[in-house]
Each structure stands twice: as structure tokens, then as C-alpha cells.
Design goal:
The protein has about 280 residues and is an alpha+beta fold. The chain has six helices and eight strands, in the order αααβββββαβββαα. The chain is elongated. Residues about 270-275 and about 275-280 have low confidence and may be disordered.
């Protein structure tokens, strides 16, 4: 009796789960086909994404500037102590996240780590910092330059670089491709694009222009109309994946439900019914 009571409870649970799964699938289908985004919907989505990306990029620049200044504040005491290049290297090599760091004086490089960034002759004065966009082969990077002065008045240049994007020039696959959206950790349903030191194309849905006082560079962030077909295709693919999940769930729950029913009403047919239901 206890076993049958447990089976009855199991049947009720499975039946409830089956009904909920079917209803959820129906709601999913109705919602997808009744809420196809209009151009205005896509325009609003694109504008929100561009604004969000603009704020993220601005914060990224601010954080990079702060981290670069912090590193400069750590290096300066070592310069005042006439520390060895090895000591300076140990400090800058422990600083994670930079693509490259270079400390040099007027005549030679003293210590560097990561990608060997190029020395910039236009140094900021005093404790200020200059940030610009540099291109090295297939990589675009942020590069900061600051002037460090030790107690004796000797001047040093500290340059830090952070990769922004990388293109795969060999076209052998996308594994080495890095976009600004990847670096910023952006994953929008409708794509946005960045153009550094350039302008947005004519077929934009929405755009934002950014100019940075820390350096002589700008960024255009925009969404374009030609991405609409790809967005609709991606939306349809995502819907198909969800639909498949619900269909598989319904099949599995139905299988367990039939097995439980056959166990309660005719135990000898458990195997036959459950096996046959697989092919239904």
C-alpha cells in the first residue's frame, strides 16, 4: 500500500510537471510569434546598448588611467632609492592586466614586461598622464605615458599599454580575434561597433561620439541597420534552442509518467510500455 501511495504521488508530480512543461512551451511559442520586434523596438534596443557601451568604455579608460598612475606611484620610490633594474622589473611584472609596461630614461630602456611597447616622446608634464591609441601590427591598444622624476631631478618615462582589439590577419579562424566588446565584457542581444579615431558610417541606427581629455583620441560607438537580419536570425536560433529543451523535457517526463502508470496498473507491462513510448 505504501509503495502504491508513493507511486501515486510520483504520478501526480510527473503529471503536474508535464502540464507545466506543455503550458510553458505554448507560452514560449505565443510570445515569440506575437512579439516580433518592430524597427522602433530594435532602435530602442540599439540606443540602450550604445549608451551602455559608451559608459563601459569611459569607465574602462578611467580605470586604466588610475591603474597606470598607481603603478607610477609605486615605481617612483624605487627610483628615489636607486634600486636595480631587477627590483623595478619585479615590481612591474607583478602588475597583472597590462599588455606591456616600459620604464626608460632619456637614453635607454631600464625595465619592461609583456609586449615591448614603443617609447612616446610626447610626455605629460608633472604628475599628469597622457593616454592615446596606438597600433602595433594587428593590435590596437591604449597606451599611457607619464613623467616620473626622482629626488635628484632625473626624468623617467613610464609607459603602460592595454590591448583593445586584435584582428586575425592570417584569416585562419577566429581564435585570435579580440574585439573591444570582448575586452569590455559586453554581450548585447543587438550588436554594437567601435571605431577609434574615426566616425560612424551613414547607415547607423544610433551612435555616440566620445572625446577623451586625457589624450588626443576619440571613439565612435554605434549600431547599424545591416545587423538587423543577423539579429533576427540569432533571435530565431535562440528560440529554437529553448523549444528543443522543452520538447526534450516533455518527452522525458512523458516516459517516466508512462512507466509509473504501467507500474501501478499492470506491473508486467512496465518494460513494454516504457520502451514503446520512446518511439511515440
Amino acid at each position: 500500500m505504501k509503495l502504491k501511495a508513493l507511486q501515486s504521488k510520483k504520478i501526480t508530480t510527473l503529471f503536474t510537471l508535464l502540464i507545466l512543461s506543455v503550458i510553458s512551451l505554448a507560452v514560449l511559442e505565443i510570445n515569440f510569434y506575437s512579439n516580433t520586434p518592430s524597427y522602433n523596438d530594435i532602435e530602442n534596443m540599439a540606443s540602450q546598448n550604445v549608451r551602455s557601451a559608451s559608459k563601459s568604455f569611459e569607465k574602462f579608460i578611467t580605470d586604466f588611467k588610475k591603474r597606470s598612475l598607481d603603478l607610477g606611484n609605486q615605481v617612483t620610490p624605487l627610483l628615489n632609492k636607486s634600486s636595480s633594474p631587477e627590483q623595478v622589473y619585479n615590481l612591474i611584472s607583478n602588475e597583472q592586466g597590462f599588455w606591456g609596461v616600459l620604464l626608460s630614461d632619456s637614453s635607454e630602456a631600464i625595465a619592461w614586461t609583456g609586449f615591448r611597447v614603443l617609447k612616446n616622446d610626447s610626455l605629460a608634464e608633472g604628475d599628469s598622464i597622457s593616454i592615446n591609441i596606438v597600433n602595433a601590427q594587428n593590435v590596437s591598444a591604449l597606451q599611457s605615458t607619464q613623467l616620473l622624476i626622482d629626488n635628484s631631478g632625473h626624468e623617467y618615462s613610464l609607459i603602460t599599454a592595454l590591448k583593445l582589439k586584435q584582428s586575425n590577419v592570417l584569416d585562419l579562424g577566429g581564435s585570435s580575434e579580440v574585439s573591444i566588446s570582448d575586452v569590455l565584457g559586453l554581450d548585447f542581444n543587438f550588436p554594437i561597433h567601435f571605431n577609434l579615431n574615426g566616425t560612424a558610417p551613414d547607415n547607423t541606427i544610433f551612435k555616440a561620439e566620445q572625446f577623451f581629455a586625457e589624450g588626443s583620441f576619440s571613439a565612435s560607438i554605434y549600431a547599424i541597420e545591416s545587423d538587423i537580419p543577423e539579429y533576427l536570425k540569432s533571435r530565431k536560433a535562440d528560440h529554437a534552442k529553448l523549444r528543443l529543451i522543452f520538447i526534450v523535457l516533455i518527452i522525458v517526463v512523458t516516459e517516466f509518467l508512462l512507466s509509473s502508470l504501467s507500474f501501478v496498473y499492470n506491473p508486467k507491462k512496465v518494460f513494454l510500455i516504457s520502451t514503446a513510448s520512446i518511439f511515440v
